[in-house]
Amino acid sequence: MKVLCVAEKNSIAKSVSQILGGGRSTIRDSTYTYVKNYDFQYSGFPFGNGQDCQVTMTSVAGHLTSVDFRGDIYGWGKCPIYELFDAPLSTEMDSNQKKIASNIQKEARNADFLMIWTDCDREGEYIGWEILQEAERGNRRLNEQQVYRANFSHLERRHILDAARRPQRLDMKSVSAVRTRMELDLRTGVTFTRLLTDTMKQKVEASRLQVNNNSNNNNIQNNQNHHKKKKDSPVIVSYGACQFPTLGFVVDRFERIENFVSEEFWYIQLQIKNADTGDSTTFQWDRGHLFDRLSVLTFYESCIETAGDKAKVVDLKSKPTSKYRPLPLTTVELQRNCARFLRMNAKKSLAAAEKLYQKGFVSYPRTETDTFPQNMDLKSLVEKQAQLDQPGNNKTAWASYAESLISESSSSNNKFRFPRSGSHDDKAHPPIHPIVPVSGNANLNIDEKRVYEYIVRHFLACCSEDAKGQSTTLILDWAGEKFSASGLIVLERNFLDVYPWAKWETTKRLPRLEMNEECEISKADMLSGNTSPPKPMTESELIMLMDANGIGTDATIADHIDKIQVRQYIRSEKVGKETFLQPTILGVALVHGFETIGLEDSFAKPFQRREMEEDLKKICEGRLSKEEVIVDIVGKYRDYWQRTNSAKNTLLEVFDRVRQSMS
Amino acid sequence: MASYLSSILSQDITQDIPFPSNLSSLGSREQLVIKAYKDEGWFSNVAMSSMVEQKLCKVDRELLFQVLMVENISKSKLNQVDEIKTKLDPKNQKVDTLRSGKKAPPKYKMVNQVDVDEDNDNTTNATSSRLANNAKTVFKFTLQNKNGDVFFGVNTTVLPWSSCLLGAKIIIKPGTIFNKGVFLLQDSNVIFLGGINKIWNENRDYKTCEYLEAKLERERENTTNSAKNKRKRKVPPN
Asked: Is the pTM of this model over 0.90?
């Protein structure tokens, strides 16, 4: 019996064949350099009835096809743009994809069964369907009863063996949803990109030329030799249904700062001398800051006149408190924290995590799940990180921490604990976690090493005890107004020892006061301050906003951010240790251009895209069909396109206006 | 009989309101309202300068006022303008924070799943702290009596009527503290009568927004001027 298995990448095919073949697979070249065919025997497939099957495991390299319009009829300038809303789509393959497809056809020719091993997400389901098309072309005898789909999320041996023993079927509803998304992205992207580029190209080029000339003039003055600037790549003003809302977030923050008005506020603050230490403790007013001087003055004078310098302790609470260990790691959290803690951008951190997954060091890094299945053996993963079989000088910096978590003899209270459960579960993959420890000679680049360390430390923190402390809150009553001060003593650091990015420190000691005790106020001040503007957008914040509002997926968020930087809609700006994202003139002009036309909610705001994502979910659930969603959304975009086309001058006027105000 | 009370509640009390000569036939609440209306106004014969200098005194009789304006002084004006604009024009709301869109209709609600700065710390509980914050919110009321004199009031306790319609009437009871033109209002020393002035409430969100924006513009000018003055001071003397 012959079985053809096809993975999404060669690295996965290699790892899976090694596991299923028990290390006895032979390797053959395919028609494409980066795809290999692995042959081995395996008897664990349920459809093989316990018999040895002759297995060939191969792979694709991501998508096997792309959807496009026929270039000879619908290429740029060859047809009226609006025709593209209805033009037929063609499935295209580049030369490499053709080579891969031909390998699948060839390998499928004599296969009795096909088993898809693509990543278990919507996109992987679609790639699985693309593989099936090619396999059927090579072998007309294959029918849907002979096609299976492996459900796996990492490359750990037992998990892969289990996936082979319990195959499922391709989910055609997910395939439909991806097909819908691809068609919509193509039709809306191409129509609006052509319209925007044709309309704005000259103006944007002229503006950039002017900026370059100015900059060259300055350079000439400084250094005659440096006057030649690199020629800019041709201007493409692209539209993407995720790119624009991503840009919108950045522009909104930029303008919030531009339009910020600092407001004065007033507040009352008390100081009480600590008899033991001689230090003063500041008590903050429960009402916080008020934006009206007269009102605060009324409170202040009323308190002084009524109670003088005496306040009374009305509440004294001392209670155990905890700093929670982090929730299990999702892709978005990984990207956000690598940006915050490691100063590594989202694209880089996801790429590093992907490589770590392909090399077998970590689980599948694209996941929305922040809950580990209760039956998952996490303790053995902690044990692997303890590297008990390694000599001391060969161990990682966190090995001894992992060892103490699982050691029976350790006197520490910080023992292995099953991680907390979050509220998200994509039903496909567990949270990101390490699979095997890195050895000293592991073939990892610097980014991969840093991301790996972050993943392991996060995982070990998840499997640790919360940090424990004692918090004390003292509340004083001064003529009816409440003032409070809090103190914290950290008693057990626990997970904080392996997770240096979380800060939780013991604070200054509070004065020793009893309940109902009257105390003397050493200082009562009415103070004022001013509000300050928010900081520009950071990548970490942008990722969070995109994720929360359904712009892109965990896998594509980094690409969208990168794309609008390449298109010069935003640029990154380094200030000290922080990197901020700022919009360019073109970025602001596009947002305001569509706003002036009256299409603000459909373009630079997240609402339209979110609606589409909800529709795609409904396709996956069988509540809507692909056709229904396409007709509805293409209809809307056709209308937007006509409105934009008849208001092209508005876009240009807005560009001039923005350039003038931002230059 | 109730018509006397309703005539007060629905009118601008700076206008003349006719009353029956015989009050004994009215209910006790109506009698109280009419008495408060008829009484001499608070600081009625005193110069404005003395009134605003008056430190901490107690109200000695029932005082009737109509509410001209209610301002939330716990929240910055910029935030309030943002909220009102989101309510009036949700499509154009700013979307750059996870706090955005709270006042927007469902279609335009921004998703708020994560707290930007709170790092999973069980010492804070979002819901209870929000409720506590509401309890601490301070409103500044602009109050007017029948003589047209204007005073302010701030709440020291939660007032269930703080989101009242403009033109609503209140009676401030004896014992209330008054300091430099401001009454310190507690729920127990104010009787809320209700009422409305329809014209004042027309397009109230727009009016409030314009008012707040005008105040912000003044703050902006002040900041610019003070920056200019600072720059001037930096010039060394000749």
From this structure: no
